[in-house]
């Protein structure tokens, strides 16, 4: 039996005793427990997201004024400004003249096409 089932059983037992203050206290404890469970779930999600960003950051290489990572065997550049400021993985738009632009912050980067872009 888990803690929730145990607390329900205790609450049912307390309700039979007709002690209103004790019932209110037990309901309060149940609510606090549910709030803690929700907080724990959110914290686990945050940890998972941060672990993913940390793993991604470990794969980044700074070259030709951009951060690069490999995806499906191809080198892909992302905006250094967006990544450094907010950890946003914004892919740069490719231009044929050796320049690329961030579609979000509009920064322009000189990127040599011969470097794998």
Characterization of this structure:
The chain has 3 helices and 6 strands, in the order H-H-E-E-E-H-E-E-E. By secondary structure, the protein is an alpha+beta fold. It has 2 domains: 51 residues; 56 residues, no CATH class. It has a 3-stranded antiparallel beta sheet with strand order 1-2-3. Strands 4-5-6 form a 3-stranded antiparallel beta sheet, with no helix packed on it. The protein is rod-shaped. The model has no long low-confidence stretch (mean pLDDT 84).
Offer a concise description of the structure.
The protein has 117 residues and is of the alpha+beta class. It has three helices and six strands; from the N terminus they run H-H-E-E-E-H-E-E-E. The chain has helices at 3-16, 20-59, 80-86, and strands at residues 61-63, 66-71, 74-78, 93-94, 99-101, 108-110.
Keywords:
117 residues, alpha+beta, three-stranded antiparallel beta sheet, 6 strands, 52% helix
Query: What sequence of helices (H) and strands (E) makes up the elements?
Result: HHEEEHEEE
How many β-strand runs?
6
Biggest sheet details: 3 strands, antiparallel
The protein's oligomeric status is: single chain
- Number of self-contained structural domains: 2
């Amino acid at each position: 039996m888990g803690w929730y089932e145990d607390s329900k059983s205790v609450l049912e037992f307390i309700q039979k005793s007709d002690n209103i203050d004790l019932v209110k206290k037990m309901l309060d404890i149940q609510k606090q427990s549910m709030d803690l469970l929700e907080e724990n779930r959110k914290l686990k999600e945050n940890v998972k997201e941060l672990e993913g960003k940390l793993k991604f950051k470990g794969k980044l290489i700074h070259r030709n004024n951009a951060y690069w990572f490999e995806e499906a065997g191809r080198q892909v550049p992302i905006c250094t400004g967006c990544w450094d400021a907010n950890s946003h993985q914004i892919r740069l738009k490719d231009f044929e003249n050796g320049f690329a632009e961030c579609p979000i912050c509009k920064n322009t980067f000189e990127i040599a096409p011969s470097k794998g872009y």
